[in-house]
Amino acid sequence: TESGSHWISLAKMSGNSCLVYDSFGRDYKKIIPNLNLTGNGRIINTDRDAEQEISETDCGARCVAWLLLFDKYGAEVAKLI
Predict the structure, then answer these.
(1) Computed over its alpha carbons, how large is the radius of gyration of the chain?
(2) What angle do CA 43, 60, 77 make, to 5 degrees?
(3) pLDDT digits 0-9 by tens, 57-68
(4) Residues 26, 31, 36, CA angle at the centre, nearest 5°?
(5) Residue from 45, 41, 5 nearest 27 by CA
(6) Whose CA is closest to 71, among 35, 6, 19?
(7) Backbone angles phi and psi of 21, in degrees to 5
(8) Residue 27, Cβ neighbours under 10 Å: how many?
(9) Residue pair 23/59 in contact by the 8 Å Cβ criterion
(10) Once rounded to an integer, what is the mean pLDDT over residues 47-54?
(11) Nearest-5° angle of CA 38, CA 67, CA 15?
(12) CA–centroid distance for 8 within its chain
């Protein structure tokens, strides 16, 4: 409910890669430009379609739901969200 606050989710994939979910569908480089992984890790965005309107305030619930989906169905399904 605070102006400028927003949740995103990060999930570690196999190896040294990370999957990033943003309910506004933005590229992770615009949200956390300094995010880097050590070694040859890759950072991958989920599907870039927006699921949340700018006036909605449920990004936290969406992020938790996405993490549960990632945990249950894996990265290949979670990438599509």
Answers:
(1) 13
(2) 45
(3) 899 999 999 999
(4) 115
(5) 45
(6) 19
(7) -115, 130
(8) 11
(9) yes
(10) 92
(11) 30
(12) 5
Tokens of 50: 């927006």
Amino acid symbol at 81: I
Q: Copy the structure tokens of residue 19.
A: 């999957």
The model's pLDDT over 2-50, given as tens digits with 9 standing for 90+, comes to 666 899 999 999 888 999 999 999 999 998 988 888 777 889 999 999 9
**Which residues on neighbouring strands pair with residue 19, listed in sequence order?**
11, 44
> 42's torsion region: left (phi>0), alpha (psi -120 to 50) or beta?
beta
Residue with tokens 């102006």: 3
3-state secondary structure the chain: CCCCCCCCEEEECCCCCEEEECCCCCCHHHHCCCCCCCCCCCEEECCCCCCCCCCCCCHHHHHHHHHHHHHHHCHHHHCCC
Q: Which residue type, as a one-letter code, is found at position 16?
A: N
